Structure formats: C-alpha cells, structure tokens
Model the fold of this input.
Amino acid sequence: MFKEVSGQRLDRIEYSDGLYYGYGEMLGKLHHLSQKYTPAIEHPDWKQRLQWTLDVLKEYAAPETALNELSILNSFFTTLPADPNNYGLVHYDFEPDNIFYDEKTSQYSVIDFDDAVVHWFSLDIEQALDSIKDELPEHKWEQAAKQFFSGYRSIKSTDEAILFFMPVFRRYVDLFGYARCLRSLHEKWDNEPDWMIGLRVHLERRMDARSKCFGKEIVLTK
Done:
C-alpha cells in the first residue's frame, strides 16, 4: 500500500540525535499544516471517540472502573482550553513504524492516517515520545526527547500548560485502546489457530496494563 514511500522506517534506523530532531520537526510541520487545513472528509473529534468508547464499554460489559475512567476524562477534557494553536486534526498514531526517513534526501514521510482525530496536538506529542520510551535505554530516551522537542519547536510553539497534562492524554489513549481490545476479543471461533490464541493472551495483558489507572483521580505534579 505504501510502496511509493522512500527510505526506511524510523524504528529500523540506528539512533542519532539528528534523527529524532527531524522526527519532532516533522510532527511540528504536520501540526502547523493542520492549523490551516480543512479536511475534505470529516474526522471524529475527541467527544465522538469517547462516545464510541462508551458504547463499546457498555455493549461488552466492561467493569465499572472503565466507565468511571471515561467519566473522569470527559470532565477533564470538557474544561481544557482549546484554540487553533493547541487543538486541531492530529495523526494519533505518529510513531516510528509510521515514519519513514530517506537518508539520501533527508526527507521524512508519514503514513497511516486512519486514526486521525480532532484533538489537542499534545496527544500526538505524547504518543510519539511514549512510542520510543521502551525502545531506547533511559539516557538515550532523555536525549531523544530533548532533540524531539527542539525539532518540534523549530517549527511550532508549544503550550507549556497543555504539555503539563500529557499524562492525562496517555490515559485517554489507554482507555480507547482498552475499548478496541475489548471489542476485538469478543469474537471467538471454534478451533482457533495457536497464533490467535497467543494474540488473545497478548491483548488481555495489554488491557490489564492499560487499565492500571482507571478511575483514579487526576493528580498532576510539576
């Protein structure tokens, strides 16, 4: 599907400061364009995504903690300031396996916009940084994050107050991912192959990890 994209996936390229500076720069460009972009196709916003999540949680009898988490997040985002500088159409899956880098041209390319949603730009930033956190040693991740922010801010300013709330954006991602897994696991077939049984175990573990903060009060400390 993406055979015209040149270069290699970011997650298959050896670490360098410049690579992650460009990673952040690319996201800054994407958000800068988003501020002026009017999509031909309407995309859902965070409220519609939460409504979809609520419908799934109810349909598949999710535990009360998941419903409480949705209520907490809905209340939080309802009061969060939104303006064209911090809010618009975001990629949602801006992670290294969806970013290609061509060393010959120094060009970054982004693929897979299927999950694009109208949300705060910080959601993309949180997703991008979280996606590399487990892939790099701590000292390299800290340096990568520093370079990422330098690249991003070379194109677009960041609202420090919004960035302070990034742990809450992670909880939003976890809840939406939990609902997706819950819906997927509901379908079962006779004589499932071993790989599908293994996938179920994997998804169940991911759901358990995603639900750790469900229902907890939002407490943010500087």
In short: The chain has eight helices and five strands. The radius of gyration is 18 Å. Strands lie at 8-9, 87-90, 99-102, 107-110, 117-120. The domain at 8-210 is CATH 3.90.1200.10 (Aminoglycoside 3'-phosphotransferase; Chain: A, domain 2).
